[in-house]
Amino acid sequence: MKTTVLSLVMVLVLFVAMSQAALIYDNPAGGTIYAWNWADGPITHSVEEVDLGDGNLVIRHTGTVNNNTGAAANTRYGSKWDITVSGNTSADPADYTISFYLRNVSGKWDPIPLSLAVLTKEDPDQGFGYAVQQIAQADGWVRVEFNLADSTGNWWEGNAWDLTNPNWSLEVGMPWPGLSVPAGESWTQVWEMDNLKIIMGSDIEPHDPVAWPDNGDGTVGTLISQAEAEVTLGWMAGGDPNTAREYPVNPDTVGYYIYLSLGGEDAPNLYLLDYVEQVYAEDPYETDPYNEYGPILLGQSTTYYWQIEQAMDDGTGNPYDAGDPNNITGPVWSFTTIGATPRILSGPEHTVADFDGNASFSVTTGA
Hints:
Structural class: mainly beta
Low-confidence stretches: 1-20, 27-31
Number of domains: 2
Number of strands: 27
Order of helices and strands: EEEEEEEEEEEEEEEEEEEEEEEEEEE
CATH superfamily of the largest domain: Galactose-binding domain-like
Largest sheet: 8 strands, mixed
Mean pLDDT: 81
Distance between the termini: 76 Å
CATH architecture of the largest domain: Sandwich
CATH topology of the largest domain: Jelly Rolls
Strand content: over 45%
Radius of gyration: 28 Å
């Protein structure tokens, strides 16, 4: 059964931009919020907006478990937000990115599985769910980001998108069948959600890769020897998702982790190569979003894969560690280095061919 607990009427305004990602909603969660309990086990659930003391509002889910029966039972709970968007003209789910933070605050369920379903078609609600995230209490706040095109989980009322519909619903909570409540046990489980962002656009992550110099033949790099080539990598920083200011670089960016493969089309695994800091201008609107790294000494005539992870501020001015889910990771790119061309150092000026046109001679080559 779903019971209305809190009604916060919010309107999400969607700004469409051709080259700049547009933030269509920012913290707090907002919307018309319903709490739902759906389980066999005994639980009373509430959802509320809570001020953590610094003006930051989070959505807090509190489940009071009281299983005074003689048998264990599964239970789960979550919330549903009805939101209104405008200007959402794209019907392509790949144009939409959703991000948010989750925290498992307290309770005996540790970790707790949580997932998000995005519903864009009404009567009945239809949409798709996102893969389950296991949130442990020791993890603190965990950032989750996904593209709607990657949302493939079944929704029980039907699977269909109507992304131009102004009425969307977001359901976040524990997937079926929930978690077990042991017989005779009672406790309070608390988890929170914060900083919901819905973005239309594609340049919130590192983009527009370059590997240079470009030789115009499908290869890059400068040949240093018969075995090695030098390559410089470049990329554009993910932009500011806040369309109210639209800095050219996301102001929470501290630097970039650079990943590179070992070389070869059959060796796509990426390894951390280095870290570089983002350089800011005094005026954030003058910060250059273009970054580069190199030159790097690589093998000649070899395919390499690479990736940029935009390292975000961990709240202390330092970057999150490489691989942290709070960072913004770009796509995997590739390039092929220049191949060596032998240079003839010496050889015969003339040679004599036999009656059939065959001849033999030798030359000396160098780099």
